[in-house]
Amino acid sequence: MGRYRALPTKFFRRSTQEVAADLLGRFLVRDLDGERLVLRIVEVEAYLGARDRASHAWQGRRTERNRSLFEEGGVAYVYFIYGMHYCLNVVTGRSGNGDAVLLRAGEPIAGVETMLGHRCWRRSPRPGDVAGGPGKLCQALKVDRGFDGSPLSHGDLRITEGEPVSPKVVIASPRIGIGYAGEAATWPLRFAIEGNRHVSRPLPG
Hints:
By secondary structure, the protein is α+β, with helices and mostly antiparallel strands. Helices cover about 15% and strands about 30% of the residues.
């Protein structure tokens, strides 16, 4: 049962890039209606607070929407985007810094049929169809703004030990869809497991 032991809050209160890479292989667990839904985290992106033009905390701006982003590391930051998708982030580091890690993709481990039902998926799934993207991931687990600010070390949505990977199989590359972010768009802050078929976009060759 070690794989399902929740990570302690101190795990999340390190540097954002360190946490991001270390999240790969961990389990994102959702308890729902007596069933355990599990995704193995295979792709993430780090966002570096006030100094990162791609971050919701760029220049230290605070709003009601991003309030949880400035809490102590270890809570969820959930936002709604494009009027249709939720995105789940893990707040990292100390309170006030606005750093977080976006969970971009997960590999289904348990509760696959239920997750496909949440996705309204009627065809045979291919790798990535269940949770190969931040919106898909939230839809599969039924994560919405109700989880914003909730702790990820316990409760109905948590991150557990899972199956951490060797740094040798972690690929770092620029983040996706942030061409507006100037120099920050080139920072290698997307981390993914080499060879994993459930990532949201192909990895650099």
